[in-house]
Amino acid sequence: MNESKFLKKKNEKGQSKNIKKYVLTLLSRTLCTIILVLVLLIGFKTSKKFKVFFHEQVYNQTFPFSTFKQIYQNYFGQSFSLKGFDVEEQQVFDEKISYKSTKKYKDGVELEVSSNYMVPSLESGIVVFLGEKEEYGSTIIIQQVNGVDAWYGNIKVSGLKLYDYVEKGKLLGEAQDKKLYLAFQKEGKFQAYQNYLS
């Protein structure tokens, strides 16, 4: 009888320690968030240079998701796995872009494709831009796992949102007017499309 009381008290103490640990973690994260917000507010109020720097870093720079993923895996191991969770299955097509002809266009290439052509992703990556680009029309930019930003222009995007992860071969949308514009950018510099389009 005494042994069961001892085990019960021991379990209660363990639960109490877990609750304290959770509360301390929550408080420390909240405190860090508050400090970060205060630093940003003070920076915006007092320094014009800070505003310019912040705007440049947040709005004009592409965030290197693939580099961040590599750093995260080096320090913390594999990313969070959804193993054991029910995840909706999606059909993925592993195909290359088929086209009739190519023509140099701006910083990339214009491909002549068939009518109602559904454009597949050339590589896996994260959607970092969805919208209109001057002279490219409706555009989707995917930051691929190899660190290259692939621009798909003149495309009617279907079912994708910003920061969605796209598998290689997933259908991105329909090319408009039998034309697809492609451009490839790495570290802010446009690359020769021949290296990425086979």
Write a compact overview of the structure shown.
With 198 residues, the chain is α+β, with helices and mostly antiparallel strands. It has three helices and eleven strands, in the order αααβββββββββββ. It is elongated.
Structure description:
By secondary structure, the protein is of the alpha+beta class. It has two domains: 2-61; 101-195, Glucose Permease (Domain IIA), CATH 2.70.70. The protein is built from three helices and eleven strands; from the N terminus they run H-H-H-E-E-E-E-E-E-E-E-E-E-E. It has helices at residues 2-46, 48-59, 65-76, and strands spanning 101-105, 108-112, 118-120, 125-133, 137-144, 149-153, 155-157, 165-166, 171-175, 179-186, 189-191. Strand 1 and strand 2 (108-112) form a beta hairpin. The longest helix has 45 residues, at 2-46. The N and C termini lie far apart (76 Å).
CATH superfamily of the largest domain, please? Glucose Permease (Domain IIA)
| Domains (count) | 2
Principal-axis shape equals elongated
The helix tally amounts to 3
In N-to-C order, the SSE pattern is: HHHEEEEEEEEEEE
Please give the share of residues in helix: 25-40%
CATH class call of the largest domain: Mainly Beta
CATH topology of the largest domain: Glucose Permease (Domain IIA)
Supply the CATH architecture of the largest domain.
Distorted Sandwich
Q: How is the biggest beta sheet arranged?
A: 8 strands, antiparallel
- What structural category characterises the helix and strand content? alpha+beta
Compute the gyration radius: what is it? 24 Å
